[in-house]
């Protein structure tokens, strides 16, 4: 193989082969393991937060000049710099909330270089992550991450970034499918995850009972999910990989009986418009903040960065250095759709454009040190990385920590700008 792939071949790369579908099950399988029912959520909340009659005082946070993103600096443009003295920001074994899927070292990954890179924006510096400052910003608030298993990685990363400063017995992780909720008692705050792989409704919404191959999206239906999002103060949305299975996807729009095959680009646009309508109708921009995270890149074909190869992200230990590297796994039509839909919104939804910075990180995926269908790979499977390497999900600590560092920088700036609701 050469890097000069026929156009048809390149175009087909946008869609992820059948074998990979098995990695997507994870997001679902993982939220399963609990039997608490939805209507118990309220009681759960009460029991953890009730009783504190004296309301803790909000402490002012000091945000120094060098913690502020300079005007006009695009934090998403920059380079990865080797920094093994400050990174990783936490250790795999020190965070009890990581699922087995992402603990690559524990699962046998021989190199840990992927944990030692700092993101350096071109025009400014990112503030150092300060868990106590973030928790103070989150006091009395609910932060919710909504999306697929990539988004679950961001949720877990955030939990690990803050959890070490909270004493034992004052923090709780609850699994209430399709949610995971991390409660922080002292701050009367929660960091939550909500499983909605297409954002809109679909037959893949059930945490356990769905198939990945067979998918059907209800492009104009969102209410079942969105009613669960309405109380959140800060919302972060993401949805990509589940769409990218085939060029066409079965979906309904209008009549629920009328299932048709839609072009994925068209379907994604219709779903985003349904979401946008909900945002406009239900989000109170004075009280809530909304973010949208752009697509998380995949590294399924290494001929894209290493001419003449025919593998994937397996055995990659270093980032790509070529400036502005962009693989075929990051679909430009989808990116364009996100841009269009957000551009037309009257509510300010901010973009966390993590695609380019993550594109460089072919080394950050779980590869053969993750899971497939909820189980660690067997020795036989590990010896066949071409079939079994997962080049979609990320190890933790790792790349999603940097997404959160940037997200933190934006929240800190908001706080200083005094636009955060008190
Ligand atoms: C950090 O990286 C430098 C340069 O590669 C290396 O010489 C040093 O041994 C590393 N330190 C640790 C603690 O790994
Ligand atoms: C906890 O936060 C909620 C808002 O999310 C607020 O209504 C409630 O009064 C707070 N509880 C305490 C004890 O401060
Ligand atoms: C799983 O879903 C299918 C179709 O939606 C349904 O027929 C079946 O009864 C469900 N099984 C369980 C165990 O809920
Ligand atoms: C849509 O559903 C039909 C009937 O189940 C199936 O034959 C077809 O392959 C599906 N199309 C896609 C793109 O998955
Ligand atoms: C889907 O739509 C996009 C953008 O409109 C177009 O470029 C692409 O060729 C279409 N794909 C199919 C399979 O029709
Ligand atoms: C991984 O890559 C190194 C070179 O970077 C090579 O020496 C080694 O044989 C590779 N390992 C496997 C299992 O392919
Ligand atoms: C995100 O950034 C990339 C370049 O890094 C750009 O091409 C893309 O259009 C941006 N996405 C959106 C939705 O603005
Ligand atoms: C904060 O205020 C500065 C200057 O007024 C502005 O440039 C910046 O965009 C604001 N940042 C946020 C996150 O709102």
Given the structure, what is the number of helices? 12
Determine the structural class based on helices, strands and strand pairing.
Answer: alpha/beta
Major sheet: arrangement of strands: 4-5-6-3-9-12-13
* Overall structural domain count: 1
Low-confidence stretches: 1-12, 26-40
Largest sheet geometry: 7 strands, mixed
GO cellular component, one term: membrane
Membrane topology: Single-pass membrane protein
Transmembrane segments: 12-33
Main location: membrane
Structure characterization notes:
The chain is an alpha/beta fold and 422 residues long. The chain has one domain. Helix content is 28%, strand content 18%. It has a 7-stranded mixed sheet. A hairpin with a 7-residue loop joins strand 10 and strand 11. Helix 5 packs across helix 12 and helix 7 runs parallel beside helix 8. The longest helix has 19 residues. The N terminus is likely disordered. The structure holds 2-acetamido-2-deoxy-beta-D-glucopyranose (NAG) (8 copies). One 2-acetamido-2-deoxy-beta-D-glucopyranose binds next to strand 10.
């Amino acid at each position: 193989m050469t890097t000069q792939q026929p156009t048809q071949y390149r175009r087909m790369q946008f869609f992820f082969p059948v074998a990979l579908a098995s990695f997507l099950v994870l997001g679902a399988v993982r939220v399963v393991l609990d039997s608490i029912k939805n209507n118990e959520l309220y009681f759960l909340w009460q029991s953890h937060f009730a009783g504190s009659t004296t309301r803790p005082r909000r402490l002012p946070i000091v945000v120094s000049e060098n913690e502020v993103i300079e005007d006009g600096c695009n934090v998403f443009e920059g380079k990865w710099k080797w920094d093994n003295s400050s990174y990783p920001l936490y250790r795999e074994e020190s965070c009890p909330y990581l699922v087995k899927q992402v603990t690559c070292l524990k699962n046998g990954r021989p190199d840990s270089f992927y944990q030692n890179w700092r993101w350096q924006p071109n025009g400014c510096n990112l503030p150092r992550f300060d868990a106590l400052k973030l928790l103070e910003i989150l006091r009395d608030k609910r932060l919710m991450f909504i999306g697929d298993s990539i988004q679950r990685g961001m949720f877990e990363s955030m939990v690990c970034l803050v959890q070490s400063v909270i004493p034992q017995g004052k923090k709780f992780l609850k699994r209430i499918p399709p949610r995971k909720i991390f409660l922080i008692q002292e701050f009367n705050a929660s960091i939550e995850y909500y499983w909605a792989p297409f954002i809109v409704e679909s037959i893949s919404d059930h945490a356990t009972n769905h198939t990945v191959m067979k998918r059907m999206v209800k492009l104009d239906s969102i209410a079942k999910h969105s009613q669960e999002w309405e109380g959140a103060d800060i919302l972060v949305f993401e949805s990509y990989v589940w769409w990218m299975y085939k060029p066409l996807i079965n979906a309904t729009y209008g009549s629920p009986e009328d299932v048709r095959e839609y072009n994925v680009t068209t379907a994604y646009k219709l779903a985003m418009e349904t979401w946008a309508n909900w945002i406009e109708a239900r989000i109170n921009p004075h009280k809530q903040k909304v973010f949208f995270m752009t697509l998380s890149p995949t590294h399924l074909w290494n001929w894209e960065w290493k001419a003449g190869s025919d593998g994937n992200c397996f055995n990659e230990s270093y980032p790509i250095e070529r400036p502005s590297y962009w693989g075929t796994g990051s679909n430009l039509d989808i990116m364009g759709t996100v841009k269009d839909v957000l551009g037309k919104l009257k509510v300010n939804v901010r973009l966390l454009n993590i695609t380019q910075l993550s594109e460089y990180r072919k080394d950050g995926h779980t590869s053969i040190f993750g899971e497939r269908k909820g189980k660690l790979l067997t020795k036989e499977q590990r010896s066949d990385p071409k079939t079994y390497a997962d080049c979609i999900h990320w190890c933790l600590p790792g790349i999603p920590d940097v997404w959160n560092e940037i997200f933190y920088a934006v929240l800190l700036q908001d706080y200083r700008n005094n636009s955060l609701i008190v």
